């Protein structure tokens, strides 16, 4: 069969409202329906909770403060903190004032923070007490005007005081947003190759992704006899909010009015105990956690029959893990997704009808071409590289037109670096990867970044880093080093890189 561009079976009208406006409108609606309904609570501290009404007011507090302190539409807010409800409020407040947000791992070293801050030219940092020392060290010598910290600290502004200030809340004025051109998010990704780059996600990209999810889930629930999607009554979030999957999942549940229990630090036993105690029906996770689950023996200890759906992303899930989970939970739906930061979050999501091992069909309004080595398009069951086009696809890489041109063709398709094939119904199967990135626990590790660190050692003449398979982490990096002197030991190299 001749090759062709594969199109999603579902379509929707592109949104006319900015993403954060849709979230804030729903936030007000949930608050009006039940003023005491909580949006987030902390698995380690039940008193640390916030209602939908408070989320709205606190977001307005930050928005008003930003405007009053001279921050303008298009400025960049650098956000690095462990999972907490303040993460959500900070984003909403920043977006309302017209700022773009670039999130980063609180586990970053000062070297990694410095790289992203410098590349962004960010003027504002919002963080927590644990991350503050590292991020302030990273910001030294850069043009950072303000540092805001949860609880406040020497030389910082207290985030909670900003949230709760009535004068700040009254000063909030919504920025005028151009959906197609204005940036909402600047997450960092290495794409298919090279060092981390800022991914320019527009308001239209992210709002389209929300519409796509709403359409997809509505269609799935209508198939089962419901009028529309029925949001989960409660969920638990442990995937990091700075990551595309964890962030969008948290915001999607927030949009739907689902109360969320937040885990700042993952603990498998506590996670399972919470799932059982609260009767949580849908969980979002990654393959490394499911491997830990099946190897731990805890599926024998906990009755997880309340779980109906397990959504999995960030890396392919081994068939052996699926089989072991299905032995204990035969009725559970394990739905794998496929996406990249460059697609806002997703291009495919599997459903109960998807073949095992498939990442499902394309998200609504999304197109795919599978390309052979000679540039021709693949037909069903032919392997080639996956390219994606859709309204959720990034504008390009921040201040990197050459890398943007390498990643995106003239038709607007973005290369994934993944080898796939699809069946006659459009179900897509990922079989290999041609990109050089190493995926460690679902996170991108560019070999070039590790090689550049190795080159800084005075006794390293040359170096090459590759990924090697690892059952627990998916892949791990291995370095091959040419020494200038035989006195250089493996331990010295490891200590140098770790430092």
TrEMBL record:
<keyword id="KW-0576">Peroxisome</keyword>
<dbReference type="InterPro" id="IPR025110">
    <property type="entry name" value="AMP-bd_C"/>
</dbReference>
<dbReference type="InterPro" id="IPR042099">
    <property type="entry name" value="ANL_N_sf"/>
</dbReference>
<dbReference type="InterPro" id="IPR000873">
    <property type="entry name" value="AMP-dep_synth/lig_dom"/>
</dbReference>
<protein>
    <recommendedName>
        <fullName>AMP-dependent synthetase/ligase domain-containing protein</fullName>
    </recommendedName>
</protein>
<dbReference type="GO" id="GO:0016405">
    <property type="term" value="F:CoA-ligase activity"/>
</dbReference>
<dbReference type="GO" id="GO:0005777">
    <property type="term" value="C:peroxisome"/>
</dbReference>
<dbReference type="Pfam" id="PF13193">
    <property type="entry name" value="AMP-binding_C"/>
</dbReference>
<dbReference type="InterPro" id="IPR045851">
    <property type="entry name" value="AMP-bd_C_sf"/>
</dbReference>
<feature type="domain" description="AMP-dependent synthetase/ligase">
    <location>
        <begin position="28"/>
        <end position="398"/>
    </location>
</feature>
<feature type="domain" description="AMP-binding enzyme C-terminal">
    <location>
        <begin position="449"/>
        <end position="498"/>
    </location>
</feature>
<dbReference type="InterPro" id="IPR020845">
    <property type="entry name" value="AMP-binding_CS"/>
</dbReference>
<dbReference type="Pfam" id="PF00501">
    <property type="entry name" value="AMP-binding"/>
</dbReference>
């Amino acid at each position: 069969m001749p090759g062709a561009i594969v199109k999603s079976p579902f379509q929707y009208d592109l949104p006319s409202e900015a993403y954060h406006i849709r979230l804030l409108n729903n936030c007000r609606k949930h608050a009006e329906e039940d003023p005491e309904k909580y949006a987030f609570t902390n698995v380690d501290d039940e008193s640390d909770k916030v209602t939908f009404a408070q989320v709205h007011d606190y977001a307005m507090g930050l928005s008003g403060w930003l405007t009053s302190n001279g921050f303008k539409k298009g400025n960049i807010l650098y956000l690095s903190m462990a999972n907490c409800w303040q993460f959500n409020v900070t984003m909403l407040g920043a977006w309302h004032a017209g700022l773009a947000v670039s999130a980063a791992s609180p586990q970053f070293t000062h070297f990694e923070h410095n790289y992203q801050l410098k590349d962004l030219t960010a003027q504002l940092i919002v963080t927590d007490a644990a991350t503050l020392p590292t991020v302030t060290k990273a910001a030294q010598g850069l043009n950072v005007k303000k540092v805001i910290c949860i609880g406040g600290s020497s030389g910082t502004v207290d985030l909670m005081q900003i949230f709760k200030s009535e004068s700040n809340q009254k000063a909030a004025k919504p920025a005028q947003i151009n959906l197609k051109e204005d940036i909402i998010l600047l997450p960092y990704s290495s794409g298919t190759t090279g060092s981390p780059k800022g991914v320019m996600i527009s308001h239209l990209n992210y709002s389209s992704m929300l519409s796509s999810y709403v359409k997809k889930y509505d269609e799935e629930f209508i198939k089962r006899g419901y009028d529309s999607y029925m949001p989960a009554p409660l969920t638990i979030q442990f995937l990091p909010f700075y990551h595309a999957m964890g962030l969008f999942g948290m915001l999607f549940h927030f949009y739907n009015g689902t109360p969320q229990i937040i885990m700042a630090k993952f603990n498998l036993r506590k996670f399972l105990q919470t799932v059982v105690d609260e009767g949580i029906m849908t969980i979002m996770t990654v393959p490394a956690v499911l491997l830990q689950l099946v190897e731990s023996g805890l599926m024998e200890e906990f009755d997880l029959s309340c779980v109906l759906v397990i959504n999995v992303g960030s890396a392919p899930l081994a068939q052996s893990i699926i089989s072991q989970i299905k032995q204990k939970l035969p009725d559970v739906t394990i739905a794998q997704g496929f996406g990249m930061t460059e697609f806002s979050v997703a291009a495919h999501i599997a459903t109960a009808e998807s073949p095992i091992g498939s990442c499902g069909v394309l998200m609504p309004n999304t197109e795919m071409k599978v390309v052979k080595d000679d540039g021709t398009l693949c037909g069903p069951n032919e392997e080639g590289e996956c390219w994606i086009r859709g309204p959720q696809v990034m504008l390009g890489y921040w201040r990197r037109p050459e890398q943007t041109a390498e990643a995106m063709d003239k038709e607007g398709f973005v290369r994934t670096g993944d080898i796939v094939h699809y069946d006659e119904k459009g179900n897509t199967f990922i079989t290999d990867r041609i990109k050089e990135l190493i995926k460690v626990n679902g996170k991108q590790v560019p070999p070039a970044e590790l090689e550049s660190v190795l080159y800084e050692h005075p006794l390293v003449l040359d170096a090459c880093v590759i990924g090697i398979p690892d059952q627990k982490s998916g892949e791990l990096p291995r370095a091959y080093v040419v020494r200038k002197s035989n006195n250089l030991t493996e331990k010295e190299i490891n200590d140098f890189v770790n430092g």
